[in-house]
Write a structure and sequence with these properties.
2 copies of one chain form a homodimer.
Chain A lengths: L10 H15 L6 H7 L4 H7 L3 H23 L7 H13 L6 H12 L3 H24 L4 H20 L9 H12 L5
Helix pairs in contact in A: 1-4, 1-6, 4-7, 5-7, 6-7, 7-8
Chain B binds a DNA duplex through α2 and α3.
Chain lengths: 190, 190
DNA sequence: TCGATTCAATACCCTGGCGTATGGAAAAAG
DNA sequence: CTTTTTCCATACGCCAGGGTATTGAATCGA
């Protein structure tokens, strides 16, 4: 009936560390030996917990997917009548400096998806969930189907696009710029 | 005083092929031996034309930068009074299916920039040029400084973001969606 | 106490890929 | 017709990194 000493390393630990490595080195950058060194063990440990490198990557992807879906559902919960605020909240959370560490992961996964069909499928699932959740909010604000779809698309294109742009490009008044864009996207909403 | 037979392979040929390889395999994916095989020669040739792999990558980046700057200047030329059309033209060129092969390169370079300061610097230059050129157009349409900066930012965030989203997410009426977004971005312009 | 199980270390093998050194053919220069 | 220069092939050294096999040391269950 203990919990600390035994189970020194479990799959979850490897997965989290691998996710960090994915974020700043891309999928090709997650090397099992480097990972082992970072966790202060050797390959021997890794190949006990995982079948092979692909096994780890698959888990990383799954881990990411579940986290993203949980997050978007949480961020788009709105009490009736406050849908507009909720959209602004989403823009705030994803486009601003919050969620700092999420951005590199998001970008790495999306780049990964360009070269791996399985990954592309998962990203598509996440995108669909985000798109639908946000579209619901626009619909609740009185926009028609087409307009809701368009703005929802714009929300995510903007959010991911902004994280792709180099920081200096945004200039010093990034905050003001952000607010103005949010205003434009949520125009004519009740 | 001849030009055809001699100089079977020049640097430009290697650079173009490497750019293609960069587009669909990332910077780590451009291998000199693979590249040589693709050009039906061996490494021996490569190391005659280039000092090393880094030399090639540097040239690829430079090649990309010059092309992008030339392109954005061309796309943002507007005769006085037709600036709004020109903005719509930019949105059309970059967000639609045209310029198909440019998108993977753009994404690969941007991902590359996340892990290489030199690359990040070049991307920043390109971004700045694009940003300023488009901002000029908005200013000419009567928008103030802040609004012009915001919309110019939105244009590129949208353009790059849309290429990051999975195609299926956009649904079947992508064209209508595109038009609606373009309408929103160019609202209140004279 | 004593196997059985869990987790990790060590020692290998093998491949891919960078860079170098050297050789060779073909064209250009003389 | 030589000689030099240009361009590419061949062969090699080297290292990083994936995967396997084996050993070893704890811990658990009995």
């Amino acid at each position: 009936m203990e919990k600390a000493p035994r189970q020194m390393l479990d799959r979850a630990t490897w997965i989290k560390s691998a996710t960090a490595m994915l974020a700043d080195s891309g999928p090709e950058g997650v090397r099992v030996e480097l990972l082992a060194k970072r966790l202060a063990v050797t390959k021997g440990s890794f190949y006990w917990h995982f079948k092979d490198r692909q096994d780890l990557l698959t888990e990383v992807l799954q881990f990411w997917k579940e986290g993203r879906i949980r997050d978007i559902i949480k961020q788009t919960q709105a009490s009736p009548g406050r849908e507009r605020e909720q959209i602004l909240h989403v823009l705030d959370v994803y486009a601003a400096n919050r969620n700092r560490k999420g951005i590199p992961i998001e970008l790495a996964v999306r780049d990964w998806a360009r070269r791996d069909l399985q990954v592309a499928g998962v990203v598509a699932e996440v995108d669909a969930t985000r798109f639908n959740q946000t579209r619901r909010l626009f619909l609740a604000c009185g926009l028609d189907e087409a307009e809701s779809a368009a703005r929802s698309t714009l929300v995510y294109a903007y959010v991911f696009g902004i994280s792709l742009l180099t920081p200096e490009t945004l200039g010093t008044d990034a905050e003001a710029c952000r607010r103005q864009i949010a205003e434009l996207i949520t125009r004519d909403l009740e």
